[in-house]
Amino acid sequence: MANEQLFSSGALNLWDTNIDRADKLFSGLTPDQLAKEIAPGKNRLIYLWGHLTAVHDRMLPLLGLGPRLHPEFDDPFLSSPDKAAPHTPSAEEIKEAWNEVNGKLRAGFATLSPSDWLQKHASVSEEDFAKEPLRNRFAILLSRTNHLSYHLGQAILATK
Amino acid sequence: MANEQLFSSGALNLWDTNIDRADKLFSGLTPDQLAKEIAPGKNRLIYLWGHLTAVHDRMLPLLGLGPRLHPEFDDPFLSSPDKAAPHTPSAEEIKEAWNEVNGKLRAGFATLSPSDWLQKHASVSEEDFAKEPLRNRFAILLSRTNHLSYHLGQAILATK
Question: Which structural domain, as residue segments, surrounds residue B128?
């Protein structure tokens, strides 16, 4: 395996591991269990799951892998704090969107070569990218993997 | 910047960002604040801080950057659950060890070239590494950055 490939494969492995962890944690929970707060007065599990789905959905255009699949998740899970949005997707709808979004990301990742990961992402201009080459797709992959870990650390508190 | 360097620098940036976040979160807390649990019956902040220090300390020999600085942190913060160990370092002692360990890691990281990150870490045999080249130093950097995020997600719950 070439050196560039070792770097990108290492990061993709960790993404996959974290998605698997999140699948195991969230997918088996009942709507009652998903309504549990991670700590008193803090976000419910269902909110974290919807939030992660919305953030992952936004990775599709950001990484040039296609249009978003569920922009309707932004209002309840990104713009609004938990319990504030008038309409929130059900556990079943979140589960379906979660699988759909992560499946499309996985398929998109498989089309990217190591050097594709070093290309700019969609939220940085050509001009800025010329000055800041670390604002690439790889940085998005790493930061979203971390974001997932951050919320997994919280979600686990409500499931043990 | 060469491609290999872009990969390793991207991951090192994220490590630095997370260390800064943890510094800001933990270093300004009083011993009383550090005694707060992240959720009822769960780990205290001081335990998470000591735990992160112990895990980072173990990265030194694992990455070939020198011997451990604080093996005495293993018993209270790795082998034992919170509140179980007979002796636990004070907040002041944890802060000092945290800064010392992360400073030594930072200095060590600065000596590694991108291809050094792709060399095996100390817990894998030459034989296994030949078959599984992703068990390299870079994988340790990524997984420990994620581990830090995981616990930061928890720690933030007790500080807001």
Answer: 3-158
pLDDT tens across A74-130, in order?
999 999 999 999 889 999 999 999 999 999 999 999 999 999 999 999 999 999 999
B30 pLDDT more than 90:
yes
Can you say whether the dihedral through the CA atoms of A48, A76, A146, B13 is positive or negative? Answer: negative
pLDDT reading at A142 higher than 90: yes
A10: which chain B residues are within 8 Å (Cβ-Cβ)?
Answer: 134, 136, 138-139, 142
In 3D space, the residue among B101, B99, B18, B105 whose CA is nearest the CA of residue A150 turns out to be: B18
**Cα A106 from Cα B146, distance rounded (Å):** 20
pLDDT of B121 above 90 = yes
Contact B14 A153 (CB under 8 A): no
pTM assigned to the model: 0.97
Q: Is the pLDDT of residue A39 over 80?
A: yes
Tell me which long-range contacts A55-59 makes (C-beta under 8 A, separation of at least 24). A55/A144, A55/A147, A56/A98, A56/A101, A56/A102, A56/A105, A56/A144, A57/A97, A57/A101, A59/A105, A59/A140, A59/A144
**Residue A26 domain flag:** no
Hey, is the C-beta of A153 within 8 angstroms of any chain B C-beta? yes
Q: Is A10 on the interface with B (CB under 8 A)?
A: yes
Average predicted confidence (pLDDT) for chain A: 97
CATH code at A101? Answer: 1.20.120.450
CA dihedral A50, A51, A54, A59 (to 10 degrees): -140
Tell me the percentage of chain A whose pLDDT exceeds 70: 100
Q: How many domains does chain A have?
A: 1
Three-state secondary-structure class, residue B136: strand
Q: What is the ipTM of this complex?
A: 0.97
Residue A2 contacts B where some CB pair is shorter than 8 Å: no
